[in-house]
Write a structure and sequence with these properties.
With 267 residues, the protein is mostly helical. It is built from 13 helices and no strands. 27% of the residues are buried.
């Protein structure tokens, strides 16, 4: 009995040790960012000037218009990417599971393929396409969402696939169809409510990825939040780091909300 108790204590100590090291790995850089943004570079003391400036929307808009432009562009990109991703993946994955199960591996391979393609290679391949996009639709930053949909496919696919595996889509859809429901109504009132947690997970992961994307936007000479932060860092490093810290905290809150919604849905 004592041996079992000792083994349990060792496993608990190891588990908490790993958790503690992981927290240190993540929070020490965040603390360094916070320490730098509150440092008074002139007198050597502490000041909240940077954070006071950051929360003053009017001052940021007047003094740093590029930062405000990049923030609004990233919000638009996040919304556009999530909508296009859901419209593309949810009907496709549901239809494949119901009617074409033999194509499941093919769809999975296509959705996971962007993980193996570096961003710079993706930009080279998309350059001719975006030449036509710019010609037909204009050079707005929001059209980068078409490329971001490709980037978020692997993560969104895994989330939605887990949700589809957790429910009997075939039985639910056949029951609804036997009662006279159209396929559009089946998708809207039967499939989506049962995939609520999976859809939220895919959406939150997509938002987090879009808010942190820099390479594609910079190479295509578009201004999103990360590009604006990079340009701001050349003139005001403290404010740029503060914006980066705020975006990281926002992403953490989003992921925490995702796990909270998932637990609430299961209960």
């Amino acid at each position: 009995m004592s041996t079992r108790h000792t083994e349990r204590r060792k496993r608990a100590a190891l588990r908490w040790g790993v958790i503690g090291l992981t927290l240190l790995f993540f929070f020490i850089p965040l603390y360094g960012m916070l320490e730098f943004t509150t440092r008074d570079l002139i007198s050597g003391g502490r000041t909240g000037r940077v954070w006071t400036t950051l929360v003053d929307v009017g001052q940021v808009t007047d003094r740093y218009p590029a930062l405000a432009e990049g923030f609004l562009a990233s919000l638009a990109l996040a919304l556009f990417t999530v909508v296009v991703m859901l419209l593309l993946l949810v009907p496709t994955m549901t239809w494949v599971r119901l009617r074409l199960p033999g194509l499941t591996r093919t769809v999975e391979f296509i959705c996971l393929l962007p993980l193996t393609v570096p961003a710079i290679v993706l930009v080279v391949g998309l350059t001719p396409i975006y030449a036509w996009v710019s010609y037909l639709l204009g050079e707005g930053t929001v059209w980068l969402g078409l490329a971001y949909v490709i980037l978020v496919l692997p993560y969104a696919y895994r989330s939605l696939d887990a949700g589809l595996r957790a429910i009997d889509v075939k039985t639910l859809s056949e029951a609804a169809r036997s009662l006279g429901a159209s396929w559009l109504r089946v998708m809207w009132q039967i499939v989506l409510p049962n995939l609520r947690t999976a859809v939220l997970s895919a959406s939150f992961l997509s938002v987090a990825l879009v808010l942190g994307e820099f390479t594609i936007a910079n190479l295509f000479s578009r201004k999103n939040l990360q590009v604006a932060m990079y340009e701001l860092g050349k003139s005001d490093g403290q404010l740029s780091v503060a914006v980066g810290l705020a975006s990281l905290v926002f992403a953490f809150v989003v992921l925490f909300a995702m796990s909270f919604v998932g637990r609430k849905e299961k209960s």
